[in-house]
Amino acid sequence: MSELDLQGNNFGERIGSRAFAKVNRHLLALNLAWSNITRLPAKLFRGMVQLRNLSLAENRLNRLPSTIFQDLRNLDRLSLSGNDLVGIPSDIFRYQTNLQQLDLGYCLLGKPARNVFAGLWSLDSLDLRGNNISQLFQGTFSRLHLLQSLFLGHNQLSRLQGHVFRGLENLRVLNLAESYLEQIDEGVFADTKHLETIDLGDNRLSVLPPGTLSRLPKLQHLSLDGNQFDEIPAEIVQLPLLRYLDVSYNRIQTIGDCVLDAVVHPRLEYLNLRENPFHCNCSVFRMREVKMKLFTKWLDKSKGPPFVPGRCSTPPSLRGVPITNWVDLDCYDALENRECNATNVIS
């Protein structure tokens, strides 16, 4: 027997320390999800030296013995999501040097201990969504040099302090959506220069400090929807690979010429401006050019329209009109005389 699926049972505390004694050295996969487990004996996984995949998701565990995973030195995937874990013992993963995917989402975790991820040299994906994390310490992720995806959404962070992502030089995907973020310190992304996707949607951000985006030359996917931005961050002009930009549900009234130069850039494939209180003057008039270029490149109709326009809020005569559906002949002349003074604009 190499795989054992026991999900959906009602074990409670009725799992003895020798429950898998006869099959432990042969198992490659063990599924104990959704089994109402409230306690794990410290020696339950003793001898499971070949186990690659272990799921303990959606149980009622509120604590883990510090040596519970000691013999699982070949584990590739581990899911503890959906439990009642308030904390995790320090160094509990010190023997999981081959682990690639760790799911701790939707537990009750608070501040992660500084060395809780020590030993996870091979980790590729870490999911911490839906916890009660209110603060991240510098050094928490510093040893996860191979990590490519980090999911921190649905927490209570409020602030990202500088260099909290130190050591994540190979990170490609970072999700911080719905985390009550109000402030991002300067230098937060200084160590993550290979980031391709950032989701900062549905937070309380109104500004990004200088250098936040300009440090990310490989960024392709940027979600800033559901925040309190008055304008699209000007540093998007320094993102030459940007393909996806969502700034819907903010407080944007106008778009500067330099920013427009960036969103007209031929690499852009998707732009969402829904639910912003636009003041429809000549600075917004160029959005019809953006719309035309995006729809020209729209080949895969299954993905939905590549451009979602906002509507005019002012002047009153244009209230409710899509920002690309009005005409002012004076604006045509203004387009010919416009000038962008910013440096480093994408060309």
Put simply, the count of helices is 4
Portion of residues in beta strands equals 5-15%
The oligomeric state is single chain
Q: How much helix is in the residues?
A: under 10%
Question: What does this protein structure show overall?
Answer:
The protein has 347 residues and is mainly beta. The chain has a domain at 220-347: Ribonuclease Inhibitor (Leucine-rich repeat, LRR (right-handed beta-alpha superhelix), Alpha-Beta Horseshoe), CATH 3.80.10.10. It has four helices and 17 strands. The chain has a 13-stranded parallel sheet. It has a two-stranded parallel sheet with strand order 8-10. A two-stranded parallel sheet has the order 15-17. Helix 1 (257-263) links the parallel strand 13 (244-246) and strand 14.
What is the strand and helix layout of this fold?
Layout: E1 3-5, E2 29-31, E3 53-55, E4 77-79, E5 101-103, E6 125-127, E7 149-151, E8 159-160, E9 173-175, E10 183-184, E11 197-199, E12 221-223, E13 244-246, H1 257-263, E14 270-272, E15 277-279, H2 282-285, H3 287-296, E16 307-308, E17 311-314, H4 329-337
Parallel strand pairs: 1-2, 2-3, 3-4, 4-5, 5-6, 6-7, 7-9, 8-10, 9-11, 11-12, 12-13, 13-14, 14-16, 15-17
Q: Quick gist of this model?
A:
The protein is built from four helices and 17 strands. The protein is mainly β. The chain is elongated.
